[in-house]
């Protein structure tokens, strides 16, 4: 099979490692959530991770827990920041997670 003039059989996967997942909890019409998404996408250019956006509207448990603290950024199920994203702390945590085992 060919894709863009290259054989797909010759394609190589850059890495087989699983990227860490950063969850961004937010809701529609939330300018702070939009800014958080923008900054997280810029951070992805420096530190690889998968960004999963989650709209909390309609999820009673998440709405009750986080409705006044959006945006919320989570890494590995742990809340990394609320309201204001600490990009330095998140970047360090992502780099720590991605360090090869010694």
Q: What are the salient characteristics of this protein?
A:
single chain, 102 residues, alpha+beta, 4-stranded mixed β-sheet, two-stranded antiparallel ribbon, 3 helices, disordered N terminus
What is the structure about, briefly put?
With 102 residues, this protein is an alpha+beta fold. It is built from three helices and six strands, in the order βββαβαββα.
Description of the molecule:
The chain is of the alpha+beta class and 102 residues long. It contains three helices and six strands, in the order E-E-E-H-E-H-E-E-H. Strands 4-3-5-6 form a four-stranded mixed sheet, covered by helices on one side. A two-stranded antiparallel sheet has the order 1-2. Mean pLDDT is 85; it is low at 1-14.
Rg for CA atoms:
17 Å
Head-to-tail CA distance between termini? 40 Å
Q: What's the main sheet like?
A: 4 strands, mixed
| Chain-averaged pLDDT | 85
Question: What order do the strands of the largest sheet run in, or round the barrel if closed?
Answer: 4-3-5-6
Number of strands: 6
In percent, how helical is the residue content? 25-40%
Structural class computed from helices and strand pairing? alpha+beta
* Low-confidence runs of at least 5 consecutive residues: 1-14
Helix and strand pattern: EEEHEHEEH
List the SSEs and their pairings:
Elements lengths: L1 E2 L2 E2 L13 E6 L4 H14 L5 E6 L4 H7 L5 E4 L2 E5 L4 H11 L5
Parallel strand pairs: 3-4
Antiparallel strand pairs: 1-2, 3-5, 5-6
């Amino acid at each position: 099979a060919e894709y863009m003039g290259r054989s797909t059989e010759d394609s190589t996967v850059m890495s087989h490692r699983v990227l860490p997942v950063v969850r961004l909890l937010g809701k529609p019409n939330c300018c702070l959530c939009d800014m958080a998404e923008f900054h997280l996408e810029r951070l992805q250019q420096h530190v690889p991770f998968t960004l999963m956006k989650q709209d909390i509207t309609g999820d009673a448990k998440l709405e009750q827990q986080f409705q006044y603290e959006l945006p919320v950024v989570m890494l590995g199920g742990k809340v990394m920041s609320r309201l204001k994203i600490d990009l330095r702390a998140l970047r360090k945590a992502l780099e720590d997670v991605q360090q090869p085992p010694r």
